[in-house]
Amino acid sequence: MTSLDLSLDAREVPLGGVRGISVHRTLPHRGLPTVGPWCFVDHFGPTADHMNVLPHPHTGLQTVTWPLAGDIRHRDNLGSDVVLKPGELNLMTSGDGVAHSEFSVGDTSGPMHGLQLWVALPNLRRTGAAGFEHHPDLPVADGKNWTATVLMGELDAAASPATTYSPMVGAELTVRPGGAVVPLRPEFEHAVLAVTGEALVGGTEIVHRQMRYLAPGREDVELFVPTETTLLLIGGTPFDEELVMWWNFIGRSHEDIVQARDDWESASERFGEVAGHKGQRIPAPPMPDLRLKPRRRTVA
């Protein structure tokens, strides 16, 4: 296994079934399942399609939803019913099990654009009660030619109120032309995603939707953009727990996943019911004809 910076290409995948939208996914990546505790990065839009995701389950993770354009109605089995607007954060902690739906609302004549990410929960928190947080106001850090809205964790002394269970950072960066230097924690590994354009990250070009992984040991990263550009910065201490990831579930073994799937398909109380959908839900796909194994890190 090498410990090098590397660039990651996104792959296009469908989200939410036949009425869903396509997203560009950079994590998990073959050979790099996590960056810190971040284990899933989806970038959707800009697109004229809209989000129509019926109730579906999660285990072992936190969902982090950050819209850039378009309003999203979130409902879950905890009773939450929130319209999420650009510049606001939804954070849902699954614990042992949670279910939610996400639908575009309001003026749907404009494009949808945003990010949805997962954070792997450590063993000490991956079971237990689920929770939901809506954060309409988040702290801002800034420096020469850059501004950052801190979604999760801390960046340059600006700390998000969102609940975390591992050392981490997640921030939307607005970078202006002329070069910018953003401070990093050297014990963290990091990644930078080009959300709205191209950028030089530590001297290496990444194109729109591409991600640049940065190994631990850096105290800062130099960024350069030709025009004002939105980037996503994520990071944290390398996650050393083995993860078995399948569909919307994260566990530690094949048996964890089988049980979660069985509980969803049997409408177990584990996942409750999301009000307002008249019993409609996304069915789990069939289990593969093989034993699920933990994702291994081989490239960083």
UniProtKB/TrEMBL annotation:
It comes from the Bacteria. The keyword Metal-binding applies. Keywords: Iron, Metal-binding. Residues 269-300 are annotated as: Disordered. Fe cation binds at residues 56, 58, 100, 102. Signal peptide: none annotated. InterPro entries: Pirin, Pirin_C_dom, Pirin_N_dom, RmlC-like_jellyroll, RmlC_Cupin_sf. One of its GO terms (molecular function) is metal ion binding. Its cofactor is Fe cation. Residues 174-267 form the Pirin C-terminal domain. Residues 23-119 form the Pirin N-terminal domain. Binds 1 Fe cation per subunit. It holds the Pfam family Pirin_C. Belongs to the pirin family. This is Pirin family protein. The lineage of its organism: Bacteria, Bacillati, Actinomycetota, Actinomycetes, Propionibacteriales.
